[in-house]
Design a protein that fits this description.
Distance between the termini: 46 Å
Helix content: 25-40%
Number of helices: 8
Bound molecules: biotinyl-5-AMP
Order of helices and strands: HHHEEEHEEHEEEEHHHEEEEE
Largest sheet: 7 strands, mixed
Strand order of the largest sheet: 3-4-5-9-8-7-6
Shape: globular
Strand content: 25-35%
Length: 320
């Protein structure tokens, strides 16, 4: 474990308590100047460590550094291989580089902060400290056309993991969002980005990027549309536990998916749907339509009733 990881771990579970430079230096076996330099590097990476005059340092907000435990040796037993970063531009970029290096499936890149987090269509994904941002490399033996429904499966697994760990019902919005109800409004707590490479009949790799707002502060500009789980629980949520449960449930679901396809998850997906049978506006390659969402089919396409016709949409997004 690097000095920086050890430094982060020392803040874990300390709440907003001030830790003196002297104490940190002693625990890390380095000088106080060295502590200061590492703190500065962490601050530059977006970790909210505050210098408190001459007294020392403290963390602002919800402190949870459980993710750095991914590097603990007991993780060698897992089906996946974690790579932990304090900060990076985007875990998608790291995972795609891993795919290009021919790494096998199961490698997963996790970061405390991302400076260039991405959503679909190159949209920006805000990734401050406190969220769960990771990208999982998969090499499924599937035709590329089947891959989008893997995103739906992952969304359903993520909502199951949230329910299992903190008891919150995060509902699904086709194709890749998780929403939480706030009064009359639905707010986004997570999004999934799937990127892939392959030929017509063969998938080479899939990178499944998961962004989940957990303990992070939502930037002001997104507050009317986005929410973090801790806003509901009013306490710091252990991100590693969420990650572990997601990875365990995903492993099982992925096995079923490879054998039976999305059909095995179709009923569960629909049971967790945010606005079943609601009228929505949808944007896809053939324009904008209005219709009633009636379900998802075995390929993961959205079934929409529009002007008394049933359509199956395999791509697009719900705009309102
Ligand atoms: C998504 O895109 O929802 C997919 C997000 C995937 C992020 C993960 S994090 C780990 C991995 N590394 C990456 O670089 N990306 C993946 P999309 O459906 O296009 O939604 C993007 C839109 O969501 C933005 O245009 C904003 O309106 C909104 N948004 C941005 N940041 C958000 C956040 N933290 N929480 C909720 N909404 C956000």
């Amino acid at each position: 474990m690097s000095i920086r990881h050890k430094l982060l771990k020392l803040f874990d579970g300390q709440g907003n308590q001030v830790l003196s430079g002297q104490l940190l230096a002693k625990r890390l076996g380095v000088t106080r100047t060295s502590v200061w330099k590492h703190v500065l590097a962490l601050q530059n990476a977006g970790i909210p460590i505050q210098s408190v005059g001459r007294h020392g340092y403290r963390l602002e907000g919800h402190a949870d550094f459980s993710l750095s435990d991914l590097l603990a040796p007991d993780h060698a037993k897992q089906w996946y291989t974690p790579h932990y970063h304090v900060s990076t531009a985007s875990t998608q970029t790291l995972a795609k580089a891993g795919a290009a290096l021919q790494l096998p499936e199961g490698h997963v890149w996790v970061a405390e902060t991302q400076s260039g987090g991405r959503g679909r269509l190159d949209r920006k994904w805000e990734s401050p400290f406190g969220g769960l941002w990771f990208s999982l490399l998969l090499r499924p033996k599937l035709a590329p056309a089947q891959v989008p429904s893997l995103t739906l499966t992952a969304g359903w697994v993520l909502s199951s993991a949230i329910k299992a760990v903190i008891g919150i019902d995060a509902k699904l919005k086709w194709p890749n969002d998780l929403l939480i109800r706030e009064g009359k409004h639905w707010k986004k707590c997570a999004g999934i980005l799937t990127e892939m490479s392959g030929q017509l009949d063969r998938t080479e790799w899939v990178v499944l990027g998961v962004g989940l707002n957990v303990n992070n502060v939502i930037p002001a500009a997104l507050r009317n549309q986005a929410i973090a789980l801790a806003e509901k629980t009013h306490q710091t949520i252990p991100r590693k536990q969420l990650f572990d449960v997601f990875m365990r449930l995903f492993h099982t679901a992925y096995g079923t998916y490879k054998k039976e396809g999305f059909d095995a998850f179709r009923t569960d997906y629909w049971a967790s749907y945010s606005r079943p049978n609601d009228t929505v506006r949808l944007k896809s390659s053939f324009g904008v339509i209005q219709g009633i969402v009636r379900g998802v089919d075995a390929s993961g396409a959205l079934i929409v009733e529009s002007r008394r016709k049933i359509r199956h949409l395999s791509e697009g997004e719900i705009v309102s």
